[in-house]
Write a structure and sequence with these properties.
mainly alpha
Length: about 80
């Protein structure tokens, strides 16, 4: 069981863990938690969140989209909030 602070973080940033069922998110492995957050933050720092969003929107507007619908939904929500 995670500490109150970790559970609060998971709840606040639940959308970062789109691939995990809502009922199972509080039990996320700490390694997966850290890896997910750091990979996204590093990419945004290296490329810039605006450029990542631009590329994402170009990709999802193509005839063939390789992203799962949950990924498209997650990043639509994320970029609307943060770009």
């Amino acid at each position: 069981m995670h500490s109150h602070g970790i559970r609060g973080f998971i709840k606040e940033y639940s959308y970062l863990f789109w691939w995990i069922r809502e009922s199972e998110k509080e039990n996320i492995n700490l390694n997966a938690l850290v890896e997910s957050v750091l990979c996204i933050k590093k990419l945004f720092k290296l490329v810039g969140i605006e450029k990542v969003a631009e590329i994402f929107y170009q990709d999802i507007n193509r005839e063939r989209v390789n992203y799962y619908p949950e990924v498209v939904n997650f990043f639509n929500l994320y970029f609307k909030k943060n770009v």
